[in-house]
Sequence to fold (231 residues):
Amino acid sequence: SQTIHQWPATLVQPVGSPLSLECTVEGTSNPNLYWYRQAAGRGLQLLFYSVGIGQISSEVPQNLSASRPQDRQFILSSKKLLLSDSGFYLCAWSAWGLAGGETQYFGPGTRLLVL
Amino acid sequence: AQSVSQHNHHVILSEAASLELGCNYSYGGTVNLFWYVQYPGQHLQLLLKYFSGDPLVKGIKGFEAEFIKSKFSFNLRKPSVQWSDTAEYFCAVNARDTGTASKLTFGTGTRLQVTL
Fold:
């Protein structure tokens, strides 16, 4: 069965410091991968998605970047964190089902607090 | 671009009460629809989904949702809630013509609190 891991689970970082959040998926190959952010009191906002190694699409202009160095690894980065980068970051992978639609499955998330 | 509205931000129900959470979306094309649930301290989990066919879909734990295309709605229902249904519920939509990736647009979520 497929599993998705994210780490770290919680992170407290000072403003201006770099960031690297990692997401890995097991039990599937060539998944589509996604990064979302959930700010307090708001829904999930899609940040980046990837349909293959080295292929990254950005949904919102911001202080963050993403990379996919391996098929089942997705990394979210920043060179200099801002206070507004605080939030709950979720990684997801997707699979196509028999009904023809694509379903996303989410990881446990990383809670980031920038001080 | 599509958007999703969940009008109930916080719902408090007694056990055995019936539940209906509203979800409306705006998009002119064909969509796939989802409800996800996040129990306290747990991952975001898929409750149910609609791609095509019967507009009344059944999910896990006794939940169901009905897609009403004319109303752009996908409301979640459960006839009798349990204390263990206390969680945050998210409606999500993706346009079916987005190419190779499924880009979900989420509502802001509804926090359900079930009291004993």
DSSP finds no helices and twelve strands in chain B. The mean pLDDT of chain B is 92. The CA atoms of residues 39 and 54 of chain B lie 28 Å apart.
